[in-house]
Amino acid sequence: MHPVLAHRGRMLLYIALWIAFGGLLAAIVAATGRTASADALLFAEPLALLLGFEALFCWYLVRLLPARETPRWRLFTTWAGAGIGNISIWVAVGYGWAEVLRSRNPSFSATRSSLELLPLLIFSGAVGFTVCVLAHYLAEALERSREAERRALEVQVLAREAELKALRAQLDPHFLFNSLNSVAALIGSDAPAARRMCFLMADFFRSSLSLGGRQSIPLSEELRLARTFLDIETIRFGDRLQTSFDVAEDSLCVAVPPLVLQPLVENAVHHGVAQLLAGGEIKVRARRRHGLLELAVENPCDPDRPASRGAGVGLSNVKARIDALFANRGSVDVDARPERFRVSILLPCAS
Fold it and tell me: 51 and 20 in contact (C-beta within 8 Å)?
């Protein structure tokens, strides 16, 4: 809805400004010395209000044609056409209104002919329309500024929420107890593997704690955390869990939100491979294309698996963070098939 029409106070202020514009137009008409002030106001005020309500449509064109993102030629041609159409209607109404006043009010004699009013109507209409367009662009800029502030606050809140959820995930009894049970089982049969698992768990907890409070990290660090997690789970699941990383070299330095890939890898293990007796392979892919970074995590899944209740930093939180950070420049797409599950993330490259 138009911001002026959405608030009563704004609408009253908007009407008051156009009444003032009408008063100025009436003063110019009265300055000719042929028309009384009351007659000049009777002529000018309805026309001013008409121009004001005509100009309300500028808001929708301003939203469709942002000044910074629209080519100059398109801005010029669109607004020139809109202005000519708007002013033509206003001038035609003004001429007709002058004729009506002449026929019904003999004292109305601003000019010898209504045609003499046309230059004044064209000029004042062009000025009023131009000022209204600029005011709408100013209002749109203020709205964008407020939206940017709101988005920044939302990003901070979501980042803190992600950090807290990451901390809970790090202490998730399911992951922690299973890992500790695996260590206990390996101590007697494979002490080197148990020792390696302890080192990996310590590295994973330390790294995830340090990443949670940062605004962005290189993709290489996010991949390192995902590899560490998968290495731990590989010791647990053995040959049931296979992993592959297809990562382009030029994507490693791209800045990404921390803990954006990690929850997808966790889901791939807990809700994918862990549900299959034969296990399967988790594929992680990273590519740069057309100024975007594409991240994808794919895993096999059991078509008859029970509904999952989820835990940790889930897919919904990743979607919310991407939307808050990048709006329409980023996306999260899910391709859920009976036996395969794939999540793709597109982010603007900012290395």
Answer: no
